[in-house]
């Protein structure tokens, strides 16, 4: 098994690359992208996410190269407005997903995580005597205020968050910008979650679908990333708004060093303590028995049997 200590850390990686209408192959230790406009060789050692849009084909050797270097692969719809599937990330340890399952399955512990998630979204401490319903009401007011403030700052008309996935062009430019920006943020958070060995499905605020935890984590950063950026780009022009907002969000991700924050934030939410002395925190996988399977002296065990 590959020594994961030799792989770059997620926090040191580039954010993502979105590719459509291309053939992807392996060329030496690089990902070769073949398009009508020419050939581009991409180094994969520090790349954490490749998002494949319509019209892309990728070879088996290219997939193997990406996964060996800890790069996640997402298959998406055009402009990343829908998510289809993902390839495996670099983490092989189950330690974090077991902790996540423990926290989400215990009602009291789950509620503690939910409170922490909401607290991270507010600039002021939340009173300990607030009920969850009250906090959710405050969160709704906070989000509506964020949209209204962005509308006022950038001079963009805001009629609410309205869009239809089946009729993308029917939405106004700022809603299309928000959807494209959020799709990118979801992809980056998904990569961080997979890289950290967590499940994208085991959400706390959101639940019951495959990307519940991805949306939990992405919601922590929308106010500083996607909302202001979408309104800024919409204020400039409605032309090619999806590609332009993706470029701007990627730059904001780089400036805010988001990839260096996501996993520490998740660790804080789930109360996970990392240590340099823990082999699993350093990339090693330690298989642990669930129970002691050594028989007592009075027991006989069939060597061919399985429990």
Which strand-content bin applies to the residues? 5-15%
Total number of strands: 8
Structural class: alpha/beta
Mean pLDDT, to the nearest integer, reads: 81
* Strand order within the widest beta sheet: 1-5-7-8
The helix content, as a percent range, equals 40-55%
Tell me the major beta sheet.
4 strands, mixed
Could you tell me the radius of gyration in angstroms? 22 Å
Number of contiguous helices: 9
Q: Tell me the distance between the termini.
A: 26 Å
Order of helices and strands: EEEEEEHEEHHHHHHHH
Q: Summary?
A:
With 307 residues, the chain is α/β, with parallel strands linked by helices. It is built from nine helices and eight strands. Helix 2 (95-105) packs across helix 3 and helix 5 (173-195) packs across helix 6 (212-218).
What do you see in this structure?
Strand 2 and strand 3 form a beta hairpin. Helix 4 runs parallel beside helix 7, helix 5 runs antiparallel to helix 7 and helix 5 packs across helix 8. It contains 9 helices and 8 strands. By secondary structure, the chain is α/β, with parallel strands linked by helices. The strands form 2 sheets. It has a 4-stranded mixed beta sheet, with helices on both faces.
